[in-house]
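User: Second chain of the day. Same drill as before.
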Amino acid sequence: MTSTPTGRRVTVDGRDSIAFDRTFRAGIEDVWAAVTESDRLARWIGEWTGDPSTGSVDFRMLYEGDEHQAEVFTIQECQAPRRLVLISQVPGEETVWHMTLTLAEHEGATALTFTQSVGDDPAMAGGVGPGWDYYLDRLVAAETGGDPASVDFSDYHPVHTQHYLDMFS
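Assistant: Same format as last time:
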């Protein structure tokens, strides 16, 4: 399979970010569940533990290798099923990621827009862009009856790294 970079440069709350769009033939509640419920997330990216009512959960990506540490996801805003704003940080590391998920339903389809900041270092776009194209394509596979494992990271990274670096140069 070949992939095409889909992200676009945006500014969110004054931060350089990359936005990605995906559309699903599903209701908004179903897509919301796919991006917020731990068991559904585990099919395409990772799982969380904890109690979201406390304002944060521990999130662990399941397809980054065993050495990948859990991150703390702090919930800044949750307007189910339309908007989720998160900050993530690996304990002991300085990098903080700002992420926003926005869902809109129209005529039986739900549009998902996901944004992530690229931090203070625009070079981070070289990893963020291909990484999210990969994971969001895994989400599409999981939610359309496909096999997320059929989405190959080598089709995204390093193939699209320069595309995303150029976006912020």
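The chain is about 25% helix and 35% strand.

User: Great, on to the next one.
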